[in-house]
Design a protein that fits this description.
This is Gfo/Idh/MocA family oxidoreductase. Residues 1-28 form the signal peptide. InterPro entries: Gfo/Idh/MocA-like_OxRdtase_N, Gfo/Idh/MocA_oxidrdct_glycsds, NAD(P)-bd_dom_sf, TAT_signal. This protein has 331 residues and is α/β, with parallel strands linked by helices. The chain is built from 10 helices and 13 strands. A hairpin with a 4-residue loop joins strand 9 and strand 10 (250-256). The longest helix is centred in the C-terminal third of the chain and has 19 residues, at 302-320. The radius of gyration is 19 Å and the shape is globular.
């Protein structure tokens, strides 16, 4: 194990409401090395995200991504989602064009790299694949979905705390133009948000965990944590999830499965109403990943990621109970 990745975090517990005694990642401290290595490993070549990340990092000019490069990849990803499993040979051939070596195991990968991006498209594989990374102490970014259940999301977070390993996960939509400015008070207090995104359903994941997570992440980026309960209305073409936040602030998520899709939100704030829909790709997320690799400081608390999953799990339960109100404290 690399010693420079095993300095201990200053610990803080998650809020009692989530019932987890683990470190909140953004408040944890992991001392960076003076001259961090730049070698990145990738796990899972079964998604277009892996191709996009490799191309951006390995062809970057003028030190845009601080000279981090993907040097090795473990291709295997999903076992069950055949549409994407069948693309692994194509995506493997593509990353090799950018100088990426492929390896036969995650343990072999960890011998060659100092940082990991886990891009496997199937959230059901994430706990299994990230555990050896967390045990090694190598900082890791986990692409969406963080997991395919609230239970496995919690296990990943607990393992990161146990092994003192820097970890974060996020949709790229968190870093869409204008979102963080609103979160940081550019419009004053946010009183409510109507967020939306495509919400395709995949049978191996709870509904919103697969694709709706993008829009739910927009909602939480703008509203912050503190959701108390949710109610979900489901049709074949549409989801509408209503959430009640603290101070009686209401946030909604609309999941789109028919007609024109897109990503965005309407923000109702103390000093104005603003429409956000400017998503321009993965570079915003990649810049945050590189900052995380440099500092070991995640841009988002693991606490917030887990509340996003509690929100989606509550929405899943509400669907199966004909729209019944589900309190996140019961999740």
């Amino acid at each position: 194990m690399k010693g420079n990745h095993r300095r201990k975090f200053l610990k803080q517990s998650l809020t009692a409401g989530l019932g987890l005694g683990i470190v909140t990642a953004a408040n944890a401290f992991h001392e960076p090395t003076t001259e961090p290595a730049k070698k990145v490993g990738m796990i899972g070549l079964d998604t277009g995200h892996s191709i996009a990340f490799v191309k951006a990092l390995n062809t970057a000019k003028n030190h845009e991504f601080d000279d981090y490069k993907v040097v090795a990849a473990y291709p295997k990803g999903t076992d069950d989602i055949l549409e994407w499993k069948n693309k692994i040979p194509e995506f493997t051939a593509e990353v090799k064009k950018h100088g990426v070596e492929t390896v036969n195991s995650i343990s072999e990968l960890l011998q060659k790299v100092d940082f990991v991006i886990l891009t496997t498209i199937d959230g059901n594989k994430h706990l299994e694949q990230v555990l050896p990374v967390l045990k090694s102490g190598v900082p890791v970014f986990v692409d969406k979905p963080f997991a395919a259940s609230i239970e496995e999301a919690r296990k990943i977070a607990q393992a990161a705390d146990k092994y003192h390993t820097p970890l974060f996960s996020s949709s790229s939509l968190r870093f869409m133009k204008g979102a963080r400015e609103v979160r940081n008070g550019s419009l004053g207090t946010v009183n409510g948000v109507e967020a939306y995104s495509p919400a395709h359903i995949e049978p191996h994941h709870p509904d919103l965990f697969w694709y709706g997570v993008h829009g739910v992440e927009i909602l939480f980026t703008l509203m912050g944590t503190g959701c108390q309960w949710v109610e979900r209305t489901y049709t074949y073409d549409t989801d509408l999830v209503i959430g009640m936040w603290d101070n009686e602030r209401i946030g909604t998520y609309r999941g789109i499965r028919k007609g024109k899709g897109g990503y965005g939100a309407v923000v109702y704030a103390e000093e104005g109403i603003e429409y956000l829909n400017n998503f321009d790709g993965y570079n915003g997320l990649l810049h945050e990943i590189i900052k995380f690799f440099n500092t070991h400081q995640p841009p988002i608390d693991i606490e917030e990621t887990l509340e996003i999953f509690a929100f989606m799990e509550a929405a899943e339960q509400s669907k199966h109970r004909d729209g019944e109100r589900i309190y996140l404290s019961s999740i």
